[in-house]
Amino acid sequence: METFPFGRRAFLSAFLLAALVREARARVPRRETGARRWIDGQQAVAEALAAGRISGLAWALEVERLAAEIDLAELTALVSRARIEPAPGGGTNDPAKRYVRFLDSEGRPRRLAYGAALFDFAPQNVITPHGHRHMVSAHLVVAGAFRVRNFHRVGDEAGAMRLRPTRDYLARRGQVSTMCSERDNVHWFVPQGGPATTFDVVVSGLDAGAPDHVIEAVDPLHARREADGTIVAPVIGFAEASRLYTARV
Ligand SMILES: [Fe+2]
């Protein structure tokens, strides 16, 4: 059954979030850059989400607000001073993923409640449509542009997800695309007009007793259309997804 995403919890969370972000900023010395304040703002909301004090939707809305504030040149400079390691290779069309570990003033990796990574897309690379469990994520466009398609995950059926198409837009440098359980749980990224890069923030392990996260590829182009506007899309393997969902789709 579909749940209304903008519940009372999200409403109350807005007040809590404002306080959390104010508190995080108050701890940052004046000499620190806006990008460091951004990292700490992300930490405040990631901790609150992981502790169950705010909803996934409240997290997503705050991450969108933080993205509107960040100076991308400052963030890029900070990332260039971070520890960056290549992630293990994915499927055929996958972008190249690199983990980003921010360092403290002594050069030690910071312990944060969220993971960060860069996704470098060659023009033929695609993040194929997929749904998530036990996690939230945000992709900030730091170079190039993407066609972003989202679907709300209304529910799950045997071997399929019931989805409602929610967004199909061009995300340019500086725009962020968020997903959570309550909104836009399925996402799909195709670079437009050349190579492009996203900077990704992830908070996982959100459900006690469950796996850290579950990601499943889904096939909305071969879905069954329902009278209420939802579609029932088969869950497929990632190899099949890479074959079906090229940059031309
Ligand atoms: Fe994802």
Brief summary:
The protein is of the alpha+beta class and 249 residues long.
User: Count of DSSP helices?
Assistant: 5
CA radius of gyration is 18 Å
Q: Largest sheet, if any?
A: 6 strands, antiparallel
Question: Domains counted in the coordinates: how many?
Answer: 1
Number of strands: 13
Order of H and E elements: HHHHEEEEEEEEEEEEEH
Q: Shape, please?
A: globular
Biggest sheet strand order reads 1-2-3-10-5-8
And the CATH topology?
Jelly Rolls
How far apart, in Å, are the first and last alpha carbons? 30 Å
Oligomer description: single chain
CATH architecture: Sandwich
State which percent range the strand residues make up: 35-45%
Question: CATH superfamily, called what?
Answer: Jelly Rolls
Note down, in words, how this protein is organized.
With 249 residues, this protein is of the alpha+beta class. It has one domain (8-244): Jelly Rolls, CATH 2.60.120.10. It contains 5 helices and 13 strands. It has a 6-stranded antiparallel β-sheet. Helix 2 runs antiparallel to helix 3 (56-69). The structure holds fe (ii) ion (FE2).
Layout of strands and helices, then pairs:
Blueprint: H1 8-26, H2 34-50, H3 56-69, H4 72-80, E1 83-86, E2 96-101, E3 115-121, E4 127-133, E5 135-143, E6 145-157, E7 160-172, E8 176-179, E9 186-191, E10 196-204, E11 214-218, E12 224-225, E13 231-236, H5 238-244
Antiparallel strand pairs: 1-2, 2-3, 3-10, 4-9, 4-11, 5-8, 5-10, 6-7, 6-9, 7-13, 11-13, 12-13
Helix pairs in contact: 1-2, 1-3, 2-3
The chain binds fe (ii) ion.
